[in-house]
Amino acid sequence: MRKTVNNLVYSLLATVALVAVMIIIVPRSDQPTDRSVDYTAVATQAQEAVDANLANPTLPKSWKANYAEMRQKSSVRSWEIGFLTPSEKFIGFAQGLDANESWVSLMMKSTVPSESRTIDGVTWTVYDNRDSRDDKIGNVHYGLSTQAGSSFFVLFGTAPDEEFVTLATALSAAIEKEANR
Q1: What is the DSSP code (8-state) at residue 26?
Q2: Rounded to whole angstroms, how far apart are CA atoms 56 and 38?
Q3: Is pLDDT at 20 greater than 90 in this prediction?
Q4: What are the pLDDT digits (tens) for 37-93?
Q5: Sign of the C-alpha dihedral, residues 64, 89, 178, 103?
Q6: What rounded mean pLDDT belongs to the chain?
Q7: Which domains does the chain have, with CATH numbers?
Q8: For residue 144, is it left (φ>0), alpha (ψ between -120 and 50) or beta?
Q9: Which residues of 41-74 are buried (b: 16+ CB within 10 A; e: fewer)?
Q10: Neighbours of 82 (CB within 10 A)
């Protein structure tokens, strides 16, 4: 009986030692994982499959995209990019192709517009939900939407106003191009 208990203790010690060695020798990075996406390259590739002019904003290097893809929501195809801003906040961009107000409402989590605002010659509908306590809005704390041709352009996220203005300004040429298509 004594040998069985001793063998059990030795086995447990050996197992703990083996786990400790594995923890020590497995390399781990101290740097955060960079999940940046080259949204410009993705836009160029996606453009081949659609007739509309996909927006491809030129932004400072401090802006990073963590996703860029074509999506389908509520029978509307959309071109979407997720940006991490210089203030480490989020702004999502979506261009709904042949979209409608229902699609905009879906993207804005059914929040109500509060005003309109002109940025670089484009009139945007503003959705300011920063004071909302509703968990259903997700990260649509603030949003902008506008229509050009058959496309709707939507911005939403948690970033401060000036970063929304930066992105809206970067999109103004693409919006004008789509309006004149």
Answers
A1: S
A2: 11
A3: no
A4: 999 999 999 999 998 899 999 999 999 999 999 999 879 999 999 999 999 999 999
A5: positive
A6: 92
A7: 39-179 (3.30.200.100)
A8: beta
A9: ebbeebeeeeebbbbbbebeeebbbeebebeeee
A10: 19
- Say which amino acid occupies 63: W
d(Cα 131, Cα 125) in Å, to the nearest integer? Answer: 18
DSSP 48-80: TT-SS--------TT-EEEEEEEEEETTEEEEE
Residue written as tokens 């979407």? 80
CA–CA dist 74, 72 (Å, integer): 7
Phi, psi for residue 20 in degrees, rounded to 5: -60, -45
Rg (CA), the chain: 24
Segment (H or E) for 90 = strand 90-97
